[in-house]
Amino acid sequence: MENIQGKVIIITGASSGIGEAAAKMLAQHGAKVVLAARREERLHTIVDEIKQAGGEAASVKADVASAEDMQQLAKFALAVYGRIDVLVNNAGVMPSSRMNELRVTEWDQMIDVNIKGVLYGIAAVLPAMREQRSGHIINLSSTSGYQVSPTSAIYAATKFAVRAISEGLRLEESATSNIRSTVIAPGLTKTELFDSITSPEVQAIAGQISGLGISPNSIARAIAFAINEPDDTLISEIMVRPTALA
Q1: Over the stretch 93-117, which tens digit does the pLDDT of each residue have?
Q2: Is the pLDDT assigned to residue 143 strictly greater than 90?
Q3: How high does pLDDT run on average in the chain?
Q4: Per DSSP, what are the bridge partners of residue 189?
Q5: Burial level of 178, CB count in 10 A (0-12/13-18/19+)?
Q6: Is 8 in contact with 85 (CB distance < 8 Å)?
Q7: Distances, alpha carbon 161 to alpha carbons 167, 226, 229, in Å
Q8: What is the Cα–Cα distance from 184 to 13, expressed in whole angstroms?
Q9: What is the pLDDT of residues 44-93, one digit of tens each?
Q10: Coil, strand, or helix at residue 186?
Q11: Which residues contact 225 (CB under 8 A, 6 or more apart)?
Q12: Which of 49, 139, 162, 194 is a plausible cystine mate for 89, CB 3.0–4.6 Å?
């Protein structure tokens, strides 16, 4: 993992799950990680754990649905470390339901976090990456970004959008600015993603399959793999899912 050593890596949604696992794993391999999430106390705990293990980490309370928060996050990373090498757009929500339940507020939440949050993250780091003529933006999609199922229409739409945004970024920036764009698409993973579900039907489904989820560390390893590849190698997409649900 020599290509991770010394890189400045921003990770959103870093207070639990995949974000937390990625932060700890990347710090273990010598990255300087900047953790962002809304739960400030939880971030402080994770930063302390990373430092106690010999890693380097800092944190910023930030809501990815706020363009201003994401700009401040990027400014913080630049002020502390002088550059931004990688952004891991990990934050996401999944309050899935059937469309006829008309949970419009939850639709808005998914669009704000899963799509706008990705765009706001890109907007915050892209100028610095273009100026230094290097960088890597990793966007977390989902297996739902490739196939729609009943109750997942809106969530899947947001994750299809993440793939489109990532591909557009790759086409526009890789050859001209040496900025890599990668999509990581997790299948069922043991995270807090199910906690946002309010639909009784989807809660019942989640209860039946949640035990089949894989560890967030499996997704963290995929993120680390993409970052560690040499700068002339771009990993466009990685899908990782449970063997039991393949």
Answers
A1: 999 999 999 999 999 999 999 999 9
A2: yes
A3: 97
A4: 214
A5: middle
A6: yes
A7: 10, 21, 25
A8: 15
A9: 999 999 999 999 999 999 999 999 999 999 999 999 999 999 999 999 99
A10: strand
A11: 235, 238
A12: 139
Query: What pLDDT is stored for residue 110 in this prediction?
Result: 98
- The number of residues in the chain equals 246
Residue whose pair of structure tokens reads 């945004």 in the numeric block: 165
**Mean pLDDT across 2-23:** 98
> What sign has the CA pseudo-torsion 209, 110, 166, 128?
negative
| Among candidate residues 117, 98, 115, the one with its CA nearest the CA of residue 197 | 98
Phi and psi torsions of 111, nearest 5°: -65, -45
Mean pLDDT, to the nearest integer, of 132-150?
Answer: 97
**Helical segments of the chain, H only:** 17-28, 40-52, 67-81, 104-110, 117-132, 153-177, 200-209, 216-228
Among the listed residues 149, 16, 39, the one whose alpha carbon sits nearest the alpha carbon of residue 90? 16
